[in-house]
Amino acid sequence: MRIIVLGGDGFCGWASALRLSRKGHDVYIFDNLSRRKIDKELNASSLTPIKSIYQRIKVWNKINKKKIKFYKIDISKEILKLESLIKKIRPDTIVHFAEQRSAPYSMINLKTRNYTLSNNILTNNNILYLIAKLKRNIHLIHLGTMGVYGYDFSKFLLPEGYYKAKLFIKKNIINTKILHPANPGSIYHLTKAQDELLFQFYQKMYGLKITDLHQGVVWGTNTKETLLHPDLINRYDYDGDYGTVLNRFIMQAALNYPLTLHGSGNQVRPFININNTADCILLAAQNKKKFNEVKIFNQLTETFRLKNLAKKIQKLTNCKIMHHKNPRIENENNTLVAKPMGLIELGLKPIKLSDNLIKNELAVSKRYSFRADLNKIRAKSQWRI
Amino acid sequence: MRIIVLGGDGFCGWASALRLSRKGHDVYIFDNLSRRKIDKELNASSLTPIKSIYQRIKVWNKINKKKIKFYKIDISKEILKLESLIKKIRPDTIVHFAEQRSAPYSMINLKTRNYTLSNNILTNNNILYLIAKLKRNIHLIHLGTMGVYGYDFSKFLLPEGYYKAKLFIKKNIINTKILHPANPGSIYHLTKAQDELLFQFYQKMYGLKITDLHQGVVWGTNTKETLLHPDLINRYDYDGDYGTVLNRFIMQAALNYPLTLHGSGNQVRPFININNTADCILLAAQNKKKFNEVKIFNQLTETFRLKNLAKKIQKLTNCKIMHHKNPRIENENNTLVAKPMGLIELGLKPIKLSDNLIKNELAVSKRYSFRADLNKIRAKSQWRI
What we know:
Shape of chain A: globular
CATH superfamily of chain A: NAD(P)-binding Rossmann-like Domain
CATH architecture of chain A: 3-Layer(aba) Sandwich
Strand order of the largest sheet of chain A: 3-2-1-4-5-8-12
Number of strands of chain A: 14
Oligomer: homodimer
CATH class of chain A: Alpha Beta
Largest sheet of chain A: 7 strands, parallel
C-alpha cells in the first residue's frame, strides 16, 4: 500500500512509519517538525540523541528495501500543497499523528490552548475535506486518546467508542446507539473529542472510511526498526510537558531522581508499549473490512494505578518516590476497565510491562543520562488558571 | 447590570443589545464588523439600509437614557485587549453572538470551513478562559443552535440539552444523564456542537455559569427598539448564504420572485421572531438561578414544514413556488417536536407567525425592494464537494 504518515517525525509517528516501511509499504512522511520546534520553545530536548529527519531517512533508505519519502509541510495551513501531494501520491491510507499531543502543554496558557485547538482541528478538517474531495476510498487512521471517555462510567468495561443506549424523554423511550459521552480532562483531550465530531460528520456526509485509535499512555523507546542503526533512534521525552508517566518514572529511577507522583497516585491509566503502537497502526492499515460507521478501537494493553507503577520500579531500582501537589484538576481515585478487544481481534499480541523490559528501558536512560537536564523534569503547567 | 454583547452589530446582536439597553442595562458592544466584511466578500448586502455601527450608536445614545459603548475588537485574536476591556468594564454578563452563523457560508469551500471552525472555537475559548481567569461569576450567555441535535430522535419531544439515559455494556447497565448526542448538518452546526464540549469542560473545571441558547431560524426585521429611529434599522439578509428561509420567502414574495424550495420542501424547521430573540436574551440575562451544569434552553416558538410555510405566504400574496435541487445533504422528511419549555418558565411570551406579521414584513421588503439584487437570491454553496 501507499501510506502517508502525517506527523511521521514524532515519537509514535517515526516508530510507525518505519514499521509500515519494513512491512513492505510505500511510506511518505509529512511533518512540519513542530515537535522539534516546541522542544526549542520549552528549552527541552529528547533524552536520546535523535538525528534530523533528513539523516534518519537517509540511513533508513540505505538499509531498507522500501524507501521512505519526506515532505516538510504544515497540514494545518498549506492546503494547496497538501492537495497536490495527495493527488501525486494517491495514497491508500493516511495515518494521522499530526496533532499537538501533550495535555500539560495544552494547559500552559491561553496561547498554547488556542494553538492546540486550532492546530488539531484544522489539521483534521483539511485532511477530511481533501479525502472527500479527491478520492473517497482513502482510509484515514487517526490517533485519538482514551482520555476522551473520562472516568464517569469506567468502573465498567469501557466500550470501543459506542454504547447501546436507551434515552428517556417524557414517557418515551428511544432505543439507539450513541458515541460514548465525552468528558475530556484537558484542552488537548478536548480537541480529540471535537475531532470525533468531525469524523462523525465527514463519515455521515461523504462516506469516508475512518479508524480512530483511542490510545493510552505510550512507554518504551525503540522498536525493532529503530534499533537497526544508531541514527534511527527514537525520541524519549522526559520534560514536565511532554514526558509521559511511565517513561518519566524510568528515567527518574535511572538518574536517582525521586519518582514524581502527582497527588495521591491513585490514578489509573491505560498503557501501551511503543512496539505495540506500531503494531496497531500496521493492523489498522491492513484492516480490509468495510465500515458503515467511524471505527473506534481502544489502543492499550494494560492499566496501572500510578502509585503501584512507581512501586514496581522502586522494587527494581530502590529509587525514592515523592508526592507533589497535583497540577491537574482531576479525580485522583478513578477506576478504569478497558481492553483492546478490536485490535486483539485484528491480531495484536500485547506486550506487557515486565521487569526485563523495565531494565532495558533503564539501560537506555542510563546510557543517555549525561544529556538530561534535571530542571526540566518537574511539571510546571497548571490546570488551575 | 453591565452586559457585554459580543457580535452586537449583527442581526440578532443589534436587536438584543438595544433591548438590554432599553431595559436599563449598561451595554457594551464588542464587534470586529466581520458580518459587514463578509457582505463585501460575497458582494451582497442587507435589503434594509443599515447604518454604520458608529451612526447607529450615536442615534441610540441620543434617544435613550442608557448609553451603549462600542469597541471594535476581534475576540478570536485580540486577547490582551479583550482581557483589559473585561477588567475595565467588570461585566455581570457576557452575551456571545460573535460566531460565523451561516451554514451555507461554512460549506462554500475549505477556506470558509476553516474560518468558521477556528473563529467560532477560538472566540469561545478566549472568552471562557478569561472569565475563568478574571472573575468567575460572569454569566456567559451563548447563542447556540437547535441544529446540534440533528433529527435522529426528533419525532419525540426534544430535550433541552440533556437526556436521562441507560447505557449498556456487556451485562452492566449505567444510569446517567447525557448531553444529547450531537448530529450537526453543516460545519457551522458542527462548531456549535464543539462549543458544547468547551462549555462542559470549562463548567466542570472552573465552575463557570453558562447558558447555551439553542436557537431556531430567526425571522422578522425590526424590534420595538429599532423602530424608534430610521437609523436604527436592523439588517435583513436575503442572499443565498445568509438569508434564512422565512425572511427569504417574504422578500421573494414581495418582489414577485418565485419562492425557492430546496428539495421536497418536507423539511421541518424551528422558528422564532427577532423580537422574541431579544426577549430570550433579556430573560436569560436576568435569570438569577444558580446552575450546577451548563444550562441549555431551546429558543424557538413554533415549527413549520417548509412547503407549508411557502403555501401560507402564497395564500397571502399569490406568489409562485419553485422547487430547486437541494444543495444540502440532509434528510428532507424529518420530524421535529420542540418547545421552549425553559424560556416559557422564565416568562417568554411567544410571538406566533400571523398573516398580519407576514404583511408587516412584506411591507418592509417592498419598501426596500429597489435595493435588492435578484442575482444574489439563489443558494450557491453546495454541501457536496
